[in-house]
Amino acid sequence: MSAPERADVVLGSVPKLGPLYAAAAGKQAAGWRRRRAVRGRGPGAPEEVLRLPAVRHVVRGVAADPGRLAAYQRLVGDALRDTLPSVYVHGLAFPVAVGVMVRADFPLPLLGMVHLGNVVEHSRPIGVGEELEIAAWPENLRAHRAGTRVDMVVEASAGGVPVWRGVSTYLAKGIGAAPELAPGEPRACLPPAPTARWQLDAATGRAYAAVLGDYNPIHLGVLPAKALGLKRPIAHGMYLAGRVLATAAPNDCGYRWSIRFEAPVFLPGTVEVALGPHNGTVDFEGWNAASGRRHFAGRVGALPPAET
């Protein structure tokens, strides 16, 4: 099947996440009222068909802020260098993707969506002074036993050539759930000897938000997290990825990395982390020593020379 044609929506600048989250809250409130009205029509009321908008949001001339870059590097324990860490590129592009997800024709609710994982190809080192074109679009809407999954694809290009591509997978719980799908095999967590222990305080989510602007309420404090069904705030998944990549990423060449999230890291909290070589790559995982639950696992490795 050929890829659908997408219309480009060119934005004048990268949108601010605060107004986007406010728009998401308003959209979800309106959707709740609409669904209540539909249920009130009684048996036979038509259900909404989930379709993704055939658009790409595009922003040109995006550049890193050196001060914010240094703040990010200090936050995750990375070296201060004049090339962009992969998660920092994600942070530059994330508001463009969120702008797609708060569109009126995007069928899933942004707030409360579960971040399942990422696959990223960082094709070459990206200089702090390079101007990037950011494009974001949704694809691969599919059923899950707990709801509906979707991929948000983001590409960053320099001089017309893609230099970074990320696919973030999200789950909207309770939307179009397909209980006939059999649950996956539970992943046994038999953790290796830890190579690091992270002590994350209650302000970790706010610190990440202050640097990269992601003020999703689930990361900020107890009250906003409880309003979205969580007992305490949780760490940003990309903060956790950034901590790992600060140690494991080969920053002098192109590289590919992936991460899957299995259980949230509640704040404050302690995460045991292990990194180890595996066939030319580095495997990593993080877990809760008290419960034995794995929080995340993934892999990072250099791209072959022909692909850089």
Polypeptide structure, described:
- Residues 200-275 form the MaoC-like domain.
- Pfam families: MaoC_dehydratas.
- Belongs to the enoyl-CoA hydratase/isomerase family.
- InterPro entries: HotDog_dom_sf, MaoC-like_dom.
- This protein has 308 residues and is α+β, with helices and mostly antiparallel strands.
- Helices cover 25% and strands 32% of the residues.
- It has a single domain (7-307), classed as Roll (Thiol Ester Dehydrase, Chain A), CATH 3.10.129.
- It has 6 helices and 11 strands.
- An 11-stranded mixed sheet has the order 1-2-4-5-6-3-8-11-10-9-7, covered by helices on one side.
- Helix 1 links the parallel strand 1 and strand 2.
- The two termini are 29 Å apart.
